[in-house]
Amino acid sequence: MTATTHTAPFTLQQIGTGTARFPSGVPIPTHTDQMVDPYFRTRMPKEHQIDCLLFWPQEKGTYPGIVLLHDWWGLTGQMKDLGARLACEGYMVIVPNLYGRLGGMVTANDDVAATLSERLDRSLALTDINSCCEYLNTRTIAKRNEHAVVGYGMGGSFALRFACHRKRLRAAVSYYGHIPQPTEDLVKNLLAPLLVHRDGKTSNEDIEAFRAAVGPGKRVETYHYPDAARGFCNDARPDLYRAGDTALAWERTARFLKTCFQGT
User: Ramachandran region of residue 145, left (φ > 0), alpha (ψ -120 to 50) or beta?
Assistant: First the structure.
């Protein structure tokens, strides 16, 4: 199967960009909160502050929100490009630096990336991702509680786990993420439709076990790219990148998200 021609509703020239910083695991301060608190700018926060990039269509309107989760190399230029490209599809996109608690590092070295990933506290990272959804709820151009999560590699693993964590989620897309052990406790809160892009090394048994645990009444779409390695969408890694599979996976993701948000 080959990718079909797909035209996004917005161009890169129509996308606004910005940054955000807000506390993790507590209510997100709104603009009104900041206006009535004279000490807001000078008070030292006790909570961890999440640093994020934002992308959104500049045409007046309200848009569903997407939390984009980076791979174990960190918040690279490729992830920034993907954030802007997702915004072109008609979404407000937030890209948190999941390594913020580790200094916000970015690396091209697989060994360093593996070490960073191992040092990352999974529970705190899920809290950070959840706070990104709550931050979107404070934005006037984002539709309230209409959120999806899209992740690559390490971020793809978090996307699957987060879908089992937050009931108010419209969709989750995982690119070559680790398939979690499908315990009853893990999948009991899974309500969102899932899309899983599998690389050539992901075992069919793992995904089928996960699908069976999720149950027949829930939507789980999987696509297998048998000749692709983990990281096949990373155009900064010529040894991994596969343009054809990347384009096809993007078409599938764009279509999946549209059906989840619009029901068409």
Answer: left
Question: What is the DSSP pairing of strand 220-224 with strand 194-198?
Answer: parallel
The b/e string for 132-159 (b: 16+ C-beta within 10 A; e otherwise) is bbbbbbbbebbbeebbbbbbbbbbbbbb
- Partners of 49 in beta bridges: 23
Neighbours of 44 (CB within 10 A): 4
What 3-state DSSP class applies to 22?
Answer: strand
Alpha-carbon span 196 to 199, nearest angstrom: 10
pLDDT one-digit tens code per residue, 16-34: 999 999 999 999 876 555 5
Tens digits of residue pLDDT in 215-254 = 878 888 999 999 899 999 999 999 999 999 999 999 999 9
Domain spans, the chain: 22-31+48-262
Cβ atoms of 240 and 230 within 8 Å: the answer is yes
User: What is the torsion angle, in degrees rounded to the nearest 10, for the CA atoms of residue 33, residue 58, residue 150 and residue 158?
Assistant: -20
DSSP single-letter state for residue 200: T
pLDDT digits over 81-104, tens only?
999 999 999 999 999 999 999 999
- Cβ contacts of 173 within 8 Å, gap of 6 or more: 148, 149, 150, 151, 156, 159, 194, 195, 196, 197, 253, 256, 257
Residue with tokens 């008070």: 43
DSSP assignment of 35-49, as one string? HH-TTTTTSPPSSPE
CB 153 within 8 A of CB 110: no
- Reply yes or no on whether the pLDDT at 157 is more than 70: yes
User: Is domain 22-31+48-262 annotated with CATH 3.40.50.1820?
Assistant: yes
Q: What is the average pLDDT score of the chain?
A: 90
